[in-house]
Amino acid sequence: MNNDLDIDQVIVRKAGGYNLQSTKWWAQLSSAERQDLLVRGDVQFFACGVEVDSAVAAASLDTAHTNVIAPKDPERSTAPTTIVVPAFLSQPDGATYVRRVVEGPLWLVTRRDASGETQLHELHGRGDASVYDLGTPSGGVDLSRDLLLDSLGAPDAFANAHAEAFAHFQQSVFDLHLSNRPWEVPAEKIRNTLADNPYLTIADNTTV
Amino acid sequence: MSNVSVSQQGAKARSISSFVFVGVVLLLAMLAIVQPGSKVSFQLGGTVNTIDELWVLFSASLVFFMQIGFLAYEVGLARPAHATVVAVKNVVDWTISSIGFTAIGFGIMFGSSAGGFIGTDLFALHGISDAANTVSGPTFFLFNLAFAGTAITLVSGSLVERTTLLAYSIVAVSIGLIIYPVFGHWVWGDFLNPDNGAWLAAIGFHDFAGASVVHLVGATVALVGLVIIGPRIGRFGPKGEVNELAPSNVGLTMMGVLILWFGWWGFNGGSHLALDGNVSSTIINTNLSGVAGLVSGGLWAHLFHGRYALNTKLVGGAIGGLVSITACADIVSPLSAVVIGLVAGIVYAIGHDWLLTLKIDDALGVVPAHGFGGIWGLLAVGIFGPSSAFEQGRLVQIFIQLAGAAVAVAWAGSVSFVIYRIIQRFIGLRIAPAEELGGASLEINENMDPVQRLRSRVQAHKASASATSD
Q1: How many contacts does A have with B, using Cβ atoms within 8 A?
Q2: Of A106, A144, B303, B460, whose CB is crowded by the most CB atoms within 10 A?
Q3: In this structure, are A55 and A137 located in the same domain?
Q4: For B117-142, how does the pLDDT look when each residue is reduced to its tens digit (9 = 90+)?
Q5: Strands, DSSP E only, in B12-83?
Q6: Which residue, B318, B281, B279, is CA-closest to B301?
């Protein structure tokens, strides 16, 4: 597999149906063609039978394509990218993200506030709670994006503009293969993970 | 997730447009057949024998009955959410083959030949004047119509759960109009007119009842489709591991196999086009080969794959045995039929697993049973047939049989490749991913199938919840 999300099927809408295309086909499109398909919602990505968010999948395939077609330039790839972290969107250090078993591989992620009080939520609606199927790549991606949403406030922009940084964050902040053990992510860990991200430089977290 | 609802709406619109398109095509074909002022007439030949006529008519009915077997076989192996649509496609492809083969296909296959390559008359039932052996033209036509339906429905089973009705219909029309009858003309084109000089038959190629004409051609079209359309979503893992997709009703599949088996008695027995002394031995050979295929396929699965693969290999082995003997049921001994069936079961088992390693998702095992089994059967003609039947010697006959198989694959493969590519380029071959994962949503089953209704509601609820969270 040539992408970190194991995307193996790209399905594209045509006039009267859909066609299955390879990830190579996607990579060989021009950026304008790719953007056009994404904007029109005419492309869907699947990893092992599970749909992956188009923007995340596209970013993953673009990265894989870059690595395959043009080997990574060490200087370029390690050059820090400066991003701005809005301080008011970052969680206090005492906050902790907790996931709980709901059913089989599904987990309820909720937030525990600084006092240690766990805030449980109903399963419907995004709010502060979501159900993630961590047995799938898309579940992991969704969880990462939501953790970033709470930490940075702009996960889509982050994930789309900084595919490598996002991939590093995803791999560092939690383990897809954690099995069914209780699991918590302190806000400090998220903050430190971002700070240690070789693809990022936190410019100034007091700047909006 | 709002894309899902948009996609479902688009899919619904496309389903409707598919029906309209197919309806218009069928209507035009009907108009071509029933021309105002013209009269469809059959002039029976003077040698028609009533008993033979009755037997071939009965055999034609048995072969037509195989459509029900294919339907049960395919519905049983499809996932529950797709069962209704699979059944509908089986009915649709019989309709398409009936119109296409009647209007044009029969003429191409049995009409006066242009250089031994293609028939040029007998279109839309006009001008059938000769009897074939001792059966009338109309009876001969009905028998071959049932054969054409069999070749077409093979593709339906292979591409199950992922192909749009419109794309499948276009492929089915192409098989009935061009692919099947043209190759059939090369092999059987001189049945009605001995002067046609069908070129494969002329060089000594022997295919008694359609191992190449029906089964190999159908399987080749299916294989090309499988490669171009691709596997079902989630069928294979990132490292090529095979994810089993649970069938809806194995019992129904087993019933389908028995119906097919029963129909095969007519498929091979009727191919003598007479109720002579050879019919019973042909049917015995057919039955023995099917039994042997089931035994060897089942044993292979038991020895190498454990219980899970047993159902698949039992069924596939039996079908493989029946396909293989189709090429040579008229000339081999019962013992040879057993050997042919035993090998066919193993050929099926190995072929089935080989395709999976290539990530080719043949949902019903059509290619290993009808394709690989068909090739094996064609070779078995030269290996097990009596030497007296081969004017040019056994080795040359084996080579001729191999060449005939290669021609079938090349012809059916190349034409179908072009057709699939055109559909892929301009229309699209697959149903919407939401339909593929949740069940195809033809309007006809939304109101009929309670399970489908429940699934649709669950999907809509999930989409709504996701949209809210976004």
Answers
A1: 83
A2: A144
A3: no
A4: 999 989 988 887 666 668 888 899 99
A5: none
A6: B318
**Domains contained in chain A, number:** 2
Does residue A162 sit within a domain? yes
Residues 232-271 of B with CB under 8 A from A: 233-239, 243
Q: Tell whether A50 lies on the interface with B, counting CB pairs under 8 A.
A: yes
What are the tens digits of pLDDT across the range A117-157? 444 333 333 334 445 555 555 666 766 776 666 555 555 66
| Residue A71 C-alpha from the chain's centroid | 23
Tell me if B185 sits within 8 A of B118, measured CB to CB.
Answer: yes
Question: Which CATH number is B245's domain given?
Answer: 1.10.3430.10
Q: How far is A17 from chain B (nearest CA, A)?
A: 4
CA angle, B299 then B301 then B303, to 5°:
65
Domain annotation covers residue B425 = yes
- Sequence length of chain B is 470
Q: Does B413 touch chain A (CB under 8 A)?
A: no
- Residue B29 has which token pair? 């074909």
The domain tally of chain B equals 1
Residue located via tokens 């399963």: A123
Tokens of B413: 């493969």
For residue A15, give its domain range.
9-71
- Strands A18-21, A118-119: pairing is unpaired
And the tokens for B304? 């190498």
Residues 6+ apart with CB under 8 A from A187: A90, A91, A92, A93, A94, A95, A96, A97, A151
Q: Are B110 and B186 in contact (CB under 8 A)?
A: no
Q: Which residues 6+ apart lie within 8 Å of A13 measured at CB?
A: A41, A42, A43, B7, B10, B428, B432
Asked whether the CA dihedral A77, A78, A82, A87 is positive or negative, the reply is: positive
Q: Say if B41 falls within a structural domain.
A: no
Q: Which helix (H) or strand (E) holds A97?
A: strand A96-103
Q: Looking at the predicted structure, is the pLDDT value of residue A176 above 50?
A: no
Amino acid in the structure at residue B110: F
Written as one string, the DSSP assignment of B338-368 is: HHHHHHHHHHHHHHHHHHHHTT---TT-HII
Same domain, A192 and A127: yes
Pick the residue from chain B with its C-alpha nearest to A13: B428
Per DSSP, the three-state class of A201 is strand
Tokens of A124: 């419907």
Q: Does residue A1 fall inside a structural domain?
A: no
Rounded to 5 degrees, what are φ and ψ at B381? -55, -50
The tokens describing A155, both together, are: 């996960």
ipTM strictly over 0.85?
no
A116 shares a domain with A46: no
Q: Are B236 and B361 in contact (CB under 8 A)?
A: yes
B164 in reach of chain A (CB within 8 A):
yes
Least CA distance to A6: which residue of chain B? Answer: B238
C-alpha distances in angstroms, A14 versus A39, B165, B172, B405, B432? 15, 15, 21, 35, 10
> What's this model's pTM, rounded to 2 decimal places?
0.72
pLDDT tens track for B203-248: 999 999 999 999 999 999 999 999 999 999 888 877 778 888 878 8
Domain enclosing residue B426, as ranges = 59-433
